Amino acid sequence: MTQQFPRPVNPLSKLDLLSEHWSPRVIAEMNDYQFKVVRIQGDFVWHSHADTDEAFLVLEGRLRIDFRDGQVTLDCGELFVVPRGVEHKPYAEGEVKLMLIEPRGVRNTGEEDGARTALNDLWI
């Protein structure tokens, strides 16, 4: 019997299949964590995640994450982890392609509801 191994996943190739902004899609899972890709542009909403950190890895473009007391700017290839409970608001002047790493079931808008709230567990 031959064991079947999963195939490698190319996040940028998966992003090529995604045209809409602010709609994260799962591309892989590890234990209870999901790796999601998303295209963003413009302003997001202020939100936080009470129970988990959230990791942002910029694959293309430049991302700014605003905090109530400052901001951080990420360039292509840079990773930043927003600690649990910290209110933040991503912003992208031009289109940014991101990978998000977070536990399965985490809502992209935290406790906030609105037009930017995406469905969970959608794969691409």
Global geometry? globular
Low-confidence stretches: none
Backbone structural class: mainly beta
Radius of gyration: 15 Å
Helix content: under 10%
Q: Please provide the ordered H/E string of secondary-structure elements.
A: HEEEEEEE
Beta fraction: 35-45%
Q: What is the number of E strands?
A: 7
* End-to-end gap: 30 Å
Task: Note down, in words, how this protein is organized.
The protein is mostly beta strands. Helices cover 5% and strands 44% of the residues. It has one helix and seven strands; from the N terminus they run αβββββββ. The protein has one helix at residues 11-16, and strands at residues 25-30, 33-43, 54-60, 63-67, 70-74, 79-82, 88-103. Strands 1, 2, 3, 4, 5, 6 and 7 form a seven-stranded antiparallel β-sheet that branches. The radius of gyration is 15 Å and the shape is globular. The N and C termini lie far apart (30 Å).
Name its key features.
124 residues; mainly beta; 7-stranded antiparallel β-sheet; 1 helix; 7 strands
Short recap of the structure:
The chain has 124 residues and is mainly beta. Helix content is 5%, strand content 44%.
Topology, element by element:
Elements: H1 11-16, E1 25-30, E2 33-43, E3 54-60, E4 63-67, E5 70-74, E6 79-82, E7 88-103
Antiparallel strand pairs: 1-2, 2-7, 3-6, 3-7, 4-5, 4-7
